[in-house]
Design a protein that fits this description.
single chain; 395 residues; alpha/beta; 6-stranded mixed β-sheet; 13 helices; flat
Length: 395
């Protein structure tokens, strides 16, 4: 006799319904590749991405040689930040050093930038602000661009530090990736050497993300801990022929001295004009990952209307939050019936669309000044009124 599967009692089943809150991803984690032969091997093992909750605390184990300690110190001058470091060997030969930085992937062993690409798998964190301070040659930037595209991160890199502005503009033509911003000029120390310029930019970007948000470009940000520039680039708010504006017109950000030392420039190396502004690129990157990564809970659940409605409400709530905070100008969620035919649904696929408008920076303030005779009448009227108010003098 087969045993019956009956329950003589009460069975309670629990279901969840409603929009889930979408959490922001960490956008201010810095990722660098650096050298330091005397660094603590446990804290900074070679060719291994290591996550540090504090750049300031990591500095104590960074040694003194190479670029690591100087980079961490420059970052800390702006603000303490979470950071992922890949330490590579130092080499006196430029080509050998470049090869160490770019790295390789052989037999499942990853080095240099290729190791940085695996940061999430190794550390559980993904750096969104990338750079190779003091060692970012053209080939290094080109390699790092692939990591930025894959991980939706953004690169700040040297524009070559050539005194000739036309040469800097020509160097810019080597890149067409929206994930790159080139920085002209250098902060220098008392010896005339690079004072970890790019590291300072990385720290400033992390600080902006924390204090204001990813919708603010790095332009017009005061950089801490510096006292001089290598190249005397001219700057004047009213002169569109000055060096700074000429560089900006070549899509290169520069460094200026104007009530402190500042970054000046909003534009990326994007070949697409829609992605010209740094803020637009980072908005697209952060929003894409924030929304996509928040729906793990929904995957493989039965595709009932209630599930799809919960997803719509979740996306709409997050975009509305960004608009309310001033991080977007506007946004909406929609469903295109043509992309959700019976064959799509039968295959377990449902498509949602959403669009938004990023907040552009005020790059060009136009003030129209008119010199006219309009208000002469006011002068005359006031004098006449005053004269008429005087009492007559009599004997």
């Amino acid at each position: 006799m087969t045993t019956a599967a009956r329950h003589h009692g009460v069975t309670t089943k629990e279901f969840t319904k409603g929009a889930r809150a979408i959490s922001d991803i960490a956008s201010s984690i810095i990722g660098i590749v650096a050298t330091a032969d005397d660094a603590d091997d446990k804290q900074f093992p070679l060719n291994t991405p290591v996550f540090h909750t504090s750049a300031y605390r990591a500095l104590a184990s960074a040694g003194e040689k190479g670029t690591l300690a100087k980079s961490l110190d420059a970052i800390c001058d702006q603000a303490d930040a979470q950071i992922i470091v890949v330490r590579v060997p130092h080499a006196d030969d430029a080509e050998e050093q470049r090869n160490h930085i770019i790295g390789s992937a052989t037999g499942g062993v990853y080095t240099g930038i290729k190791a940085l690409r695996r940061a999430r798998a190794v550390t559980g964190y993904t750096p969104k602000i990338l750079g190779v301070p003091m060692l970012d040659s053209q080939s290094v930037i080109a390699e790092l661009a692939g990591v930025a595209q894959e991980t939706r991160a953004f690169i700040y890199a040297s524009a070559g530090n050539n005194p000739d502005i036309s040469a800097v503009a020509n160097y810019r033509k080597n890149f067409g990736q929206r994930e790159i911003m080139l920085i002209d000029n250098q902060f220098i120390d008392d010896k005339g050497e690079d004072d970890a310029t790019i590291a300072r930019i990385l720290g400033a970007r992390a600080k902006l993300d924390t204090q204001i948000g990813w919708h603010k470009t790095i332009s017009n940000t005061v950089i801490n801990g510096v006292s001089q520039l290598k190249l005397p680039r001219s700057f004047d708010l009213l002169d569109d022929k000055c060096d700074a504006n000429t560089l900006n017109n070549a899509d290169v950000t520069t460094l200026i001295r104007e009530n402190g030392f500042r970054t000046w420039g909003n534009r990326t190396c994007s070949e697409d004009p829609m992605m010209a502004f740094e803020s637009t690129v980072r908005s697209a990157q952060i929003i894409q990952e924030t929304i996509a990564s928040s729906f793990l809970w929904a995957m493989d659940k039965p595709m009932h209307p209630s599930l799809l409605e919960d997803i719509i409400m979740g996306i709409n709530a997050k975009l509305s939050e960004y608009v309310y905070k001033g991080m977007l100008l506007g946004a909406r969620v929609f469903v295109d019936a043509n992309k959700n035919q019976a064959t799509n649904v039968q295959a377990g696929q449902f498509t949602f669309g959403y669009e938004f408008t990023a907040v552009p920076p005020l790059e060009n303030l136009v003030l129209e000044q008119y010199v006219s005779d309009t208000f002469f009448v006011n002068l005359t009227n006031k004098v006449v009124s005053f004269a008429n108010s005087l009492k007559a003098t009599t004997i």
